[in-house]
Design goal:
alpha+beta, 2 domains, five-stranded mixed beta barrel, 20 strands
Length: 506
Amino acid sequence: MTEEPGEATAAGDRSTSWSGEDKRRARVERLKREGVDPYPHSFLPRDHAAEIQAAHDPRALAEGEHPEFRYRVMGRVTGKRGHGKVVFFDVRDVSGQVQAYARRDQLGEEAFERIEELDIADIVGVEGVLYVTKREELAISVETCTLLAPALKDPPDLFHGIKDPEVRYRQRELDLIANEDSRNIFKKRSELTFAIREYMHEHGWVELETPILQRLTGGAAARPFVTHHNALDRDLFLRTATELYLKRAIVGGFEDVYEFGKFFRNEGMSPNHNPEFTMLEMFVGGADWNGVMEFQEALVSTVVEKVMGTTVIERDGVEIDFKAPWPRVVLRDELLAETGVDIYKASRDELAELAGQDADPNDDWAGLVDTLQGKLVEPKLIQPTFITVLPIDIWPLVKHHPDDPKVCEAFDGIVAGLEIVGGGTDINDPVEQRERFIGQRERQESGAEEDPHPTDLEFVRALEYGMPPASGCGLGIDRLLMLMTGSKTLRDVIIYPAMREASDAV
């Protein structure tokens, strides 16, 4: 019976014998002198560790080699153990981990010594037949082991992971190497974006791509990033929204359209805000705000269930169910219940008193109501809920509400006190839209809204050709994923988040 040493030593375990960077680099130089290329060009075909683990039940197989099953795996060495004649080492790829089993008498002295000198975090390609250990574990009996990329730096703690958020976010590659939870979050992100596109395609939607560099910024009340186009010798803006371009496409004959992509808003950073973020912006042709709310809640509940296996997630010890339909509440009613004040009848001073230190001296009625929504209503909404009938001055592209000229058919979707979606019934009257743009401009210049920008007359001109009824919304992918995965900050779900400059960055 072949002797098998104890458990593999993982990087970060105090018993690990570290080579140190100098020794790692010296080994690479020695290999090059000996005619060994430590950076070969390819390793194909290859199998994945998870597929191997799923394909075989080691308890149903005899101990030893099974030549009928041959595999090639590429991955990072995460643990190694052995003495003299036998070395076991763990190889981890994107799917999971599998053991590799190397014997001196099978490989010969030179090849075996190459395996003995492998460092933790080296990337290798292993080929061999399936092997079942006496502990009833699967392994690959190594016939060849190729060094594909030596790790020149000592890796992070693979056993305990990286706790320092500065390291995790600035050097995400180290976070991914060391933290399985982080790898799983970004796998979930990929699954989420795929599930959304699949859902939209199945329902007949058309995905369009609109400019990221825009002549005018529009579609969102946000400060833009400005860049300069040398050939045109003019400033352009990174888009804050895609709304105006998508609606021009609706004028051109499309109906149900969406865009999935990056948006840029030159504003502050917080656990819930990043200047570069991902959003799904979509428009339901022929529908009012009820139609887009119904489609959006069905979309989110479906993709959450597909990715997570359930519509129910847990956050801060509370179960949250994304299952459709979501309740709809009216902002006026919610603030009346919270404060005893009817915002439709209250003076600006009354609203400012309710807002307290959160009120800005330049805030008008709409701005104060928006502040009160964020302060008093949203934090109390844990289950997915639509807040409806919002101040019209905040939504210059949305049709007015028949009940009062101060409000419109707009909504915000709130989950766990966090806004993940907003939208409404879109204006398709070019005369009204021009007037609303003018009103928005005047409001911005008064100081009630930041960052005045020119009216998009090209959009108004497009509406003059006729746009059918439509309603739209923007769904924040980063925030949705943050909720789904239990993450506390957007930096956990954006693979390379915006960071302040590090004085010691290299």
